[in-house]
Amino acid sequence: MSKEKPNMRQEQAAETRRNLLDSALKLFAENGFSATPVRSINQKIGMADGLLYHYFPGGKKEMLQVLVLENYQLIVSRLRVIQTENFDDLTLEEVIERLYQNWRNIFTDYRHVIKILFRETDLFNLLDKASLSKMRGSETWFQEILRDRAQKGEIKEFDYVSAAEVLKAVLFDHFLTAVTGIGPGLLDNDNTRKRIIAYQVGLWKR
Q1: Other beta carbons within 10 Å of 95
Q2: Which of 21, 64, 127, 194 is 20 to 30 A removed from 52 (C-alpha atoms)?
Q3: CA-to-CA distance for 194 and 87, rounded, in angstroms?
Q4: C-alpha angle 148/152/156, rounded to 5°?
Q5: Phi, psi of 158 (to 5 degrees)
Q6: Given this model, what pLDDT does residue 49 score?
């Protein structure tokens, strides 16, 4: 019995810490970091004022740093999983559609932290260069797909780097628009998205 109680306390402490982070994540995304008082983070999960500092001595600034770093690493991991998929049996149009769906899932699952990152742009300073380079690796991955498809004759040879950058910009703009609530993304409509993808791939073929 004596061994179980410390374990139970540790589990409860870990759950409370997680609940505090989840509460802060939603409030920071909704209201902004500066406009979110510590008391509101406590109240959201019914915790007494002051206990937050037991788990996060640095207060809400420490919480923000933890949230950004931990979620960013999870996003990078998801992107790396995408790059391990086998697309050999798919047309290039189908590859881009799959890429869109994968990015949509990531932006949906991490919409709160993505909104925070673009509200508090100085937070990018928390991210080490290795993490940023891993995220940019997704661009190189798509460049290689284009080069491979050109070698197989599906598309012509052209500037793969610029093509990958253009596609990334289109997708990024679409999902950022959706995440920040500016308005519905152009690619949300299945027919519109299919037409745009077909047009882009058509340019690569001509």
Answers
A1: 19
A2: 127
A3: 18
A4: 80
A5: -160, -165
A6: 79
Q: CA-CA distance, 26 to 113, in Å (whole number)?
A: 9
The conformation of residue 2, written as its DSSP 8-state character, comes to T
Domains of the chain: 1-57 (1.10.10.60), 68-205 (1.10.357.10)
Crossing angle of the two packed helices 59-83 and 129-151, in degrees rounded to 10: 20
Task: Tell me the three state secondary structure of residue 86.
Answer: coil
Closest CA to 120 of 32, 37, 31: 32
Which residues 6+ apart lie within 8 Å of 59 measured at CB?
Answer: 38, 52, 53
Distance CA 141, CA 95 (A): 12
As averages over each run of 10 residues, the pLDDT of the chain (206 residues) reads 67 91 93 91 87 91 88 87 89 95 91 83 62 56 92 94 90 83 82 95 90
Q: CB neighbours of 110 closer than 8 A, spacing ≥ 6?
A: 71, 74, 75
